[in-house]
Amino acid sequence: MRFVSRTAIAAAASISLLAGGAVVAQAALTKVPVEVQAGAYDLDSDHGKITWSVDHLGFSTYKGQFVNVDADLVLDPADPSASTLTATIPLTEVDSNSDGLDAHLQTADFFDTANHPVATYVSRSVTVNPGDATRATVVGDLTLRGVTRPVTMEVKFNQAGPSMGGVYRAGFDGRATIQRSDFGINFALPVLGDEVDLHVEGEFTRP
After folding, report:
1. Rounded to whole angstroms, how far apart are CA atoms 127 and 156?
2. pLDDT at 34 over 50
3. What does pTM read for this prediction?
């Protein structure tokens, strides 16, 4: 008969528990949309931003970001078409990596933030891609400079589950393209691009 010390048994038990804990933590994360917790979510503004890019006189593609975005998401994994998204974008919180441009963007040439300090986006429909349940088309109304236009956003679900601190979190990426002239932003057209690409990144948490 082979004897094993109590220390060895305890060490083996600890290793087993640690391994089991890792397995449980990994299993709690999911990339399957129907496994996501249903309900209301708030955007984690520290991990949510909108990156914009526009052609700069043909020389380069200029990029900047809107930060401190506020958004509410209601998820219904059983019926994704019933999900909703509402976002408020503070136009004064733009970061173009140029203090001069940041100031210019606040003027009537661009956002006219003295009269229109925020933009809003309110979803009207959510349609899941029939061939890939992690992708969906979201159609909503974007209001910018007092003008409201429909904007279609292609969204990809990344994953959901407990994150650091045990907070339940769901992550998404979205992409859309708008024409700034549709919202009355005509400064320096056509040499400064009219088409603006938007890349939306968001991590939403359960309250």
Report:
1. 12
2. yes
3. 0.85
